[in-house]
Amino acid sequence: MPEGKIIKALSGFYYVLSGDETIQCRGRGVFRKQKVTPLVGDEVTFQAENDKEGYVLGLEERKNSLVRPPIANVDQAILVFSAVEPTFSTTLLDRFLVLVESHDIEPIICITKLDLLLEEQKKELDVFVSDYREIGYEVLLTSTLDENSVQMLLPYLKDKVTVVAGQSGVGKSSLLNVLDPSLSLKTDDISTSLGRGKHTTRHVELLSIGGGFVADTPGFSSLEFTELEAEELPYCFPEMVQVSEGCKFRGCLHVKEPKCAVKEAVENGEIPSYRYDHYLSFLDEIKQRKPRY
């Protein structure tokens, strides 16, 4: 049975890359019965009717899958944030980091538009960059999206499935256009009234770039923790995981528990207080979430 990878899903068709050929496939009715939807990124078995068309018969077990964007088997996420226009937001960045950490996806933080910063803003950003690097995150810095950005990012793409996500209007499509000019992906100017870009990407597609696959995904301005439980949240903050072995209680949520090593680390300045504040805010949001039935 031939095997391949779904690189695009559109209007009920799945485009399966097998070797150098792309076969346009439909899904078998068995997926509907099992309430399973094949996703871009899925490794599949398929049956070819001819050299252009066929049917997806089965899905291999997934490493992970995301709901927004709908994609499976992601290795890493390049989180594109701008230093200004729109303003750099650690709260939004931490939301993205929690989301990708909860799916065992390796995050790479890419901050653009450094050339637009005033001196005072640059000093403030330097502190954040230092904090995130100290936690262990890869942080890449770039001014304009040019050839230098390409050279910086290409080595990270090889043999990986990469999602490009982040603030709306930071230039994700522009970034992909720089990586592969033949794409000519549609980009819109920043909507000044909203302070964020308009959504310009309509579907998920895996693009072959730099010896790997890159997904161009719709930018989103809000992220909800619909699938994350309160007990899982501490594991999405690597700096908390590092010190939590020193907590008195197993399963410590680092809020009101006595002898909590995480709270001590925050007080000592080992863990940035804004990260801990975001953690408490996210935890409260998860606890307040209405139950799903």
Automatic annotation (TrEMBL):
PROSITE patterns: ENGC_GTPASE, G_CP. Gene3D superfamilies: Nucleic acid-binding proteins, P-loop containing nucleotide triphosphate hydrolases, Probable gtpase engc, domain 3. One of its GO terms (biological process) is ribosomal small subunit biogenesis. Its main location: cytoplasm. It is found in: Cytoplasm. Its EC number is 3.6.1.-. Belongs to the TRAFAC class YlqF/YawG GTPase family. RsgA subfamily. One of several proteins that assist in the late maturation steps of the functional core of the 30S ribosomal subunit. Helps release RbfA from mature subunits. May play a role in the assembly of ribosomal proteins into the subunit. Circularly permuted GTPase that catalyzes slow GTP hydrolysis, GTPase activity is stimulated by the 30S ribosomal subunit. This is Small ribosomal subunit biogenesis GTPase RsgA. It comes from Priestia filamentosa.
